[in-house]
Design a protein that fits this description.
Layout (H helix, E strand, L loop, with lengths): L11 H13 L6 H6 L27 E3 L7 E3 L11 E6 L11 E10 L4 E5 H4 L3 E4 L7 H6 L8 E6 L18 E10 L2
Antiparallel strand pairs: 1-2, 3-7, 4-5, 4-6, 4-8, 7-8
Length: 191
């Protein structure tokens, strides 16, 4: 399996530096990256052209999600609408634990489907390793830092992240101008 690096935890500029460094390196060892990387590819990077524009932006209700909290979701993106141009946040099931605030520690499970090819790019569910982060500390993409505010422990939340709040020009397995669809489970909120 190809290691993508820390998709959620590294900004676009850092990804470019890492990509350039990796291209010039003759060291095939991947131990450091693999040990710290919560994200691994479950498929090849998308190289398909985006679907034809329909003139209608998708909403949270257009995205199909099956599965309950704690299980790997199945995410279905329709081809009858265009990717949204702004961050979409929707609780699919609301937990009864504390709500996340900026600066708090979170432990999240997630599945990521890329809009352009409608394939799972990464899943902590499949790895069996929830992802720890400090909310609002810039450790993750802006779509997560913004979209996870207020998530309650025990909640399943859908995030549709436009390119400017994700990876913009792409890198590390994410195609340029890619919209990202996450289903996240808030395993733990706070320490």
């Amino acid at each position: 399996m190809h290691t993508l690096g820390r998709i959620l935890g590294i900004g676009t500029a850092a990804l470019a530096v890492i990509a350039l460094t990796a291209c010039g390196s003759s060291d095939d060892s991947d131990d450091t990256t693999a040990a710290t990387s919560p994200v691994q590819s479950t498929g090849a990077a998308a190289s398909t052209a985006p679907a034809a524009k329909t003139g209608k932006e998708c909403t949270a209700e257009d995205i199909g999600v099956t599965g309950d909290f704690g299980t790997a979701p199945k995410i279905t993106i329709p081809d009858t609408c265009d990717p949204p141009t702004h961050l979409i946040v929707k609780d699919l099931s609301e937990g009864d634990g504390p709500a996340a605030e900026s600066g708090q520690q979170l432990t999240m499970n997630y599945a990521l489907v890329t809009w352009s090819d409608r394939q799972t790019l990464d899943s902590s569910f499949q790895r069996g390793e929830p992802f720890p982060l400090s909310l609002g500390a810039g450790q993750v993409i802006p779509g997560w830092d913004q979209g996870l505010i207020g998530v309650k422990e025990g909640s399943r939340r859908l995030l549709i992240v436009p390119p400017e709040l994700g990876y913009g020009q792409g890198g590390n397995g994410v195609a340029p101008n890619e919209t990202l669809v996450f289903v996240t489970d808030a395993v733990k909120v706070g320490n």
